[in-house]
Design a protein that fits this description.
This protein is of the alpha/beta class and 340 residues long. The protein is 35% helix and 27% strand. It has eleven helices and 15 strands. The strands form two sheets. Strands 14-13-12-11-7-10-9-8-15 form a nine-stranded mixed β-sheet. Strands 3-2-1-4-5-6 form a six-stranded parallel β-sheet, sandwiched between helices.
Length: 340
């Protein structure tokens, strides 16, 4: 017998969650809570496992048969909804970022531990097959000692960013723009590969987006690590000339790894001027982003049912938020910010 999941927030990011919940054999029923009539109707129409819908998530949480709450709301709602879900006795999966402030993140983490509930953050790029393989190669010394990481995220979310009424990219409802949103992925992957940075320097700018309530649409950051490693993250939400692309390059004393978000040749190892495509198990008929989201949701559901500990920790989610906030602080103050 499987579990019942209550999904809160049935907007765009929730569609990947719903696809996974619908296909997962350990999920028997899905309940939906969303203030939008259209979102609730579409969920009922498109996903047969959706059995009940609610306008107010707090009414849904009163159902004691719900085992897991899946929170897919804008960032500013994460803290309160996760807290309410934990207090209602649910295990919780929340979309990234964990919260908008470290105080909120700590409260969520401490509440989960105090109540003996499970809390997971949807850091889905940890589950990309080529990231898993890249981590093994680094740990096995395939590129020697890493000393430089260059992560680039180039894409176009200009329309939502440029809409003053859309929550995405607003300081008030998102906590920032490109860096705290998609940049969150780049940060937690760099920390996973290389450890925690000791300092950051960032420049976060609103270059093309017009509304003054919106945050950075282009950001560049430098991360300094204790073990003689430098990392850079460059992210743009205003690239109109080409399709969205994320690339990660890690250089070591004996070789380099080149990671690209495409299914055919996502991971390349270069040694002595010779390139080798590494087999990763990434399906070639599905883009890595929805595939990793599916893997992540399935993994967290298995953790809840089996009781096993997650390899993706709450400390990682908190550390990632701390780095993102430090990048913004560095940009505001125009100086290098030390961490921890």
């Amino acid at each position: 017998m499987g579990i019942k999941v209550g999904l809160i927030g049935a907007g765009s990011i929730a569609q990947g969650h719903l696809n996974t919940l619908q296909a997962n054999r350990d999920v028997d029923e899905i309940y939906i809570a969303d203030t939008s009539d259209i979102a609730r109707q579409n969920a009922q129409k498109n996903f047969p496992k959706v059995k009940k819908v609610f306008v107010d998530y707090r009414e849904m949480l009163k159902d004691e048969s719900i085992r897991m709450a899946d929170v897919c709301t804008p960032h500013y709602l994460h803290h309160q909804i996760v807290f309410d879900s934990l207090k209602a006795g649910k295990d919780v999966l929340v979309e990234k970022p964990i919260a908008m402030t470290l105080k909120e993140a700590d409260h969520m983490i401490n509440t989960a531990r105090k109540l003996g509930r499970r809390l997971f953050v949807e850091m889905n790029q940890r589950f990309m097959p080529y990231h898993i393989e890249a981590k093994k190669l680094i740990e096995n010394g395939a590129i020697g000692r890493p000393f430089l990481a260059v992560f680039n995220i180039m894409g176009n979310t200009f329309d939502t960013m440029n809409n003053p009424n859309h929550w995405k990219g607003s300081w008030e409802k998102a906590g920032g723009g490109a860096m705290i949103d998609t940049g969150y992925h780049a940060i937690y992957m760099m920390l996973h590969f290389l450890g925690k940075p000791k300092a950051v320097t960032g420049v976060a700018k609103r270059l093309l987006v017009q509304p003054e309530n919106k945050a950075d649409d282009n950001t560049v950051a430098i991360l300094e690590f204790d073990n003689k490693i430098l990392g850079t993250i460059a992210i743009s939400y205003t690239i109109f000339s080409e399709a969205w692309m994320e690339m990660r390059h890690i250089y070591g004393t004996e070789g380099s790894l080149h990671i690209k978000d495409e299914p055919l040749e996502p991971l390349i190892l270069v040694k002595e001027n010779r390139s080798q495509v590494i087999e990763t198990g990434q399906p070639k008929d599905i883009h890595p982003h929805p595939y990793s989201l599916k893997c992540a949701v399935d993994y967290y559901i298995d953790c809840i049912i089996s009781g096993r500990e997650s390899e993706v920790t709450l400390e990682e989610a908190r550390d990632t938020l701390a780095v993102a906030l430090a990048i913004y602080e560095s940009s505001r103050k125009g100086k290098r910010i030390t961490l921890w």
